[in-house]
């Protein structure tokens, strides 16, 4: 069995990743799928992506499915829905060892059914937090709405899988509370190793506070703007919000009303790294998060984070002590933490180095190894040890090892 040799051997797998879209780099789940695909390729696996905008040599590009009203609303939140094409997708599935699903929508439901019909093992990820829907419906963290969505996702999609990838213990616990019976693998989405501290830190003319994330209600950038306005050092703070989204105009109005200078931008990876390395403090104010790779990337660049301590967010896991947590949606609490780090420069620089070291446990390389184990566990249980599509790699044959 593969499990017996997982630390010395791995199978070169043909892996299909299914996600509605792959061409909107402002969508966090899309970026996660791209990072995972690239990381698996580095390990030697053949990866095919089935999605709108898929353009790799072995990928399967599908058309967009238009849904009246919903498509318009979803577009504002960087989501497009794919149209199922049985013939094209079946061809992409040919010879696959496993199919991994990112979203739980109608497209994925049909693609899962096709994989089952073709006798291919499958796994799924849980990246779409139901609370995102309730916030964008302007219902806040409505437990009633969220419970309905958790149940809908479970009954229509996730109950058909034996293994589910969760990016954090927070989300894994939510699934258990909502009756998900599959085996859950807690695997960080992993951050790119290009995110590292600068060789030398620059001395800024103002205290640079930055937050990265989609400009949406649940990300709660508005509380950060309020906190800066309440800070004792308001005039010495430069605030940058990196991201796109439907809340941009509202945030601009709020900043203008409170007299807070805010820069809005969306940066490519190299410029993002540079901006993080040249900043002084990172704030993550989101009310709900499955993990928040944006925060992890900032930490990896040596920034001390200040994180909303929300019961619906997994991001507090990155905080090393209470100085990096503020009361959820409380601008005064956040202002106090910003002022503390502003006034304790040496401690902030010292803790920045400690935070950068703490991020290493969430490296993409570690996440890929864990994902491989999940895939192999599913393939083994599916009875695919005799499949000829996989090639064993190692220095010792399994027969000799067994002796």
Name of the CATH architecture of the largest domain: 3-Layer(aba) Sandwich
Total beta-strand segments: 17
* CATH superfamily (homologous) name of the largest domain: Glycogen Phosphorylase B
Structural class: alpha/beta
Quick one: overall form? globular
Spatial ordering of strands, largest sheet: 4-3-2-5-6-7-8
Oligomer: single chain
Distance between the termini: 14 Å
Which percent range describes the beta-strand content?
A: 15-25%
Q: How do you describe this structure in short?
A:
This protein is of the alpha/beta class and 403 residues long. It has helices at 28-42, 70-75, 86-93, 106-117, 130-136, 143-156, 169-177, 221-230, 248-258, 269-277, 293-300, 331-343, 345-358, 364-381, 398-402, and strands at 10-12, 14-21, 46-52, 60-61, 98-101, 122-125, 163-166, 183-186, 207-212, 237-242, 262-265, 281-284, 288-289, 305-309, 312-313, 325-327, 391-393.
Write the layout of secondary structure elements.
Elements: E1 10-12, E2 14-21, H1 28-42, E3 46-52, E4 60-61, H2 70-75, H3 86-93, E5 98-101, H4 106-117, E6 122-125, H5 130-136, H6 143-156, E7 163-166, H7 169-177, E8 183-186, E9 207-212, H8 221-230, E10 237-242, H9 248-258, E11 262-265, H10 269-277, E12 281-284, E13 288-289, H11 293-300, E14 305-309, E15 312-313, E16 325-327, H12 331-343, H13 345-358, H14 364-381, E17 391-393, H15 398-402
Parallel strand pairs: 2-3, 2-5, 3-4, 5-6, 6-7, 7-8, 9-10, 9-12, 10-11, 12-14, 13-15, 14-16
Antiparallel strand pairs: 1-17
Helix pairs in contact: 1-14, 5-6, 8-9, 8-12
